[in-house]
Amino acid sequence: MFSKEQEQEITDYLMLHKLPLDILLEVKDHMISQVTDIQTEENLNFQDAFHKTRKLWESEFKRTTYSAFFSEEIPVIVKKIVKERYLSIFKKSLLLGLISAAVNFASVFLMKDAETYSLFFQIQNGLFILFPVAIWALHYKMLKYIKSDYKYKGKLYYTMYQQNAAVTISMIGIMGQIVSKEGNYPYLYFREHNHDEIVYVLITLILPFIVQVMIIFVMINFFEHKKSLEKMKEFLNLSAE
Questions:
Q1: Where are the beta strands (DSSP E) in the chain?
Q2: Cβ(151)–Cβ(20) below 8 Å
Q3: What's the chain's Rg over C-alpha atoms?
Q4: Going by C-beta distance under 8 Å and a sequence separation of 6 or more, which residues neighbour residue 132?
Q5: Element (H, E) at 164
Q6: Beta-strand (E) ranges in 28-133?
Q7: Burial (CB count <10 Å: 0-12, 13-18, 19+), residue 2
Q8: Is 211 exposed, middle or buried (CB count within 10 Å of its CB: 0-12, 13-18, 19+)?
Q9: From CA 4, how far away is CA 110, in angstroms rounded?
Q10: How many helical (H) and strand (E) elements, i.e. helices and strands, does the chain have?
Q11: Are the beta carbons of 22 and 165 closer than 8 angstroms?
Q12: Is the pLDDT of residue 178 over 50?
């Protein structure tokens, strides 16, 4: 059993590597387990076992880049975890985005005229504004926890999802621009055989799909961020900032 001082020493060591807090706590559990195993198997004291554990983890804390999501260099282990989890979220977002795109494409052939299709187009995409706004309204206390400068002890992001959750407003802004357009080019192309605006047809079909996928992605990040904060409640209550 570790003393509070020994456990804090491991926490401080991990904080030096600037892991997001949720990942830090996950890695900390693995590291504590490994230090314990080394102490037992090799009959070492805490300091020697911790030193040996740090050596084993050395390569995981080397700095690397992941420009898709981080402007600064991050530890290799953070990149591994983030890449795996973001890929899973992206797959879910892509699937839901494809379903929405299929509904939109089907509506081209189901609506009676261009005006009705245009109204459907605006309502469908408007829901991707309404849903995030409604979620934020219901979870208004969460707003301070997704600010990009909101950090644990001024050093670490609280979760790996925090930065993405914070960009929701920009996605809503882009979707607002889409909703302000009539968006009836696909109807005119497929139903009225007006082939003069093929570029606008492609833009109207592809751009909303991309933005929808991104909004779904950032909203899943919002819920994962919230879930991670819930899991860390006990730790945060015990750790005075």
A1: 63-64, 74-75, 151-152, 156-157
A2: no
A3: 24
A4: 168, 171, 172, 215, 218, 219, 222
A5: helix 162-165
A6: 63-64, 74-75
A7: middle
A8: buried
A9: 66
A10: 10, 4
A11: no
A12: yes
DSSP 149-162: T-EETTTEES-TTH
Q: What angle do CA 146, 150, 155 make, to 5 degrees?
A: 135
Tokens representing residue 142 in the block: 């969460």
CA pair distance 229, 142, nearest whole angstrom:
10
Quick one: CA dihedral 199, 205, 210, 215, positive or negative?
positive
First to last CA, the chain: 25
Which residue reads 């992605």 in tokens? 217
Of the given ranges (33-37, 164-168, 198-202, 225-229), which has the lowest mean pLDDT? Answer: 164-168
pLDDT exceeds cutoff 60 at 40:
yes
Please tell me whether residue 239 adopts helix, strand or coil conformation.
coil
pLDDT tens digits, residue range 77-90? Answer: 999 999 999 999 99
- CA 93 to CA 68: how far, in whole Å? 17
